[in-house]
Amino acid sequence: MRRSFTFLLRPTSKQAAALAQCLEDHRELYNAALEHRRTAYRKAGVAVRYGEQSAELKHIRADDPGGQGRWSFSSQQATLRRLDKAYRAFFDRVKAGRTPGFPRFKGRGRFDTVEWPKDGDGCRRHSQPEHPTATYVRLQSVGQVRVHQHRRVLGIVKTISVKREGARWFVVLSCDEVPAHPLPATGAVAGVDVGVAWLATTSDGDQRHLAACASRLAAAQRKLAGKKRGSKRRRKAVARVAALHAKVRRQRLDSAHKAALALVRGYDVIVHEALKVAGMTRRAAPKPDGEGGYLANGQSAKSGLNKSILDAGWSAFLTILSHKAESAGRQLIAVNPANTSRTCSRCGHCAKDNRVTQAVFRCTACGHEAHADVNAAINILRAGLALREAARAA
Ligand SMILES: [Zn+2]
């Protein structure tokens, strides 16, 4: 199994400055490589490839020994590969008949990760067996940086990345051959409905919040909007919003891990709605509150920007859940989300009017009344078990 471990870095102020410079130079390299590709195409109709750009690195480094020449060759190759990947993804989407945005230049603060593709090449991890939490990572031209390793790393470290989040630095170790830890069978199966406000509901009626409340973030964003451009107060407000963003993201990840763990501990088979990138069923039209926001009717969250944030969180949760399920030897089944929330789990009658409010389901055919999310979770479970039967019969 492949799995990644993220730890807080504790660089000295000098090391933090070097890390910031490292990111900045990699960003410059990325932008220059993008410019090169664009110009070659515009002027000569030539498509530049990764191999050619990688071959030029030697000269770029030789011409700028105190700048680009300082950093690891392999990490620079990784940055060029990242651009190549962005290009490929762009052309794949064009081929699929969509109209994607062209790969963009990365502005300051829009390039926050550098990868070293191999432990021992421009970076090296040190751990002290007698003090498992006292570890360091040595990065070329940055130095030996302390790692706050709050848990054991399993498997073999393949790639090492450093990423910046606000004022903090993290190291991400991507490991291969991480051993699985199968859990004993429980004999239980569950469907999971993830509704508005990050609330996951199982077919047994268990509910769990996938995210902490983001209201402080919203308040900070409103404050920021009122500050004058270029002012000192605005700069302060920007920093505050960035810090809260990072905090909300960490809390979300933490709750997602806990919810996923509870699911794999409790059930042998877990059925969930497949994530549809374009157009999940909208449950209700949002009601504007007259101040640029939406009324808390509990239904607006599946539309517009909120919906895309919800989808992003849902996809992050599914990634965590699938890793844990694989490790624990559990089966995860994705089903088509269409109609799961408007179908009666008792008689199968499907109608929009079955959903009385966000929380209440009442079947217009048989009168069955239930918590709307539990009703949906039961439908999801049933659809998943039917898929499983069909797969067995085939
Ligand atoms: Zn019914």
From TrEMBL:
GO terms for molecular function: DNA binding; metal ion binding. Keywords: DNA recombination, DNA-binding, Metal-binding, Transposition, Zinc. One of its GO terms (biological process) is transposition. Residues 180-283 form the Probable transposase IS891/IS1136/IS1341 domain. InterPro entries: Cas12f1-like_TNB (IPR010095), RNA-guided_DNA_endo/Transpos (IPR051399), Transposase (IPR001959), Transposase_put_HTH (IPR021027). Residues 314-380 form the Cas12f1-like TNB domain. Residues 1-43 form the Transposase putative helix-turn-helix domain. The keyword Amino-acid biosynthesis does not apply. It holds the Pfam family HTH_OrfB_IS605. PANTHER family: RNA-GUIDED DNA ENDONUCLEASE RV2885C-RELATED (PTHR30405:SF11), TRANSPOSASE (PTHR30405). In the N-terminal section; belongs to the transposase 2 family. In the C-terminal section; belongs to the transposase 35 family. This is Putative transposase. The lineage of its organism: Bacteria, Bacillati, Actinomycetota, Actinomycetes, Streptosporangiales.
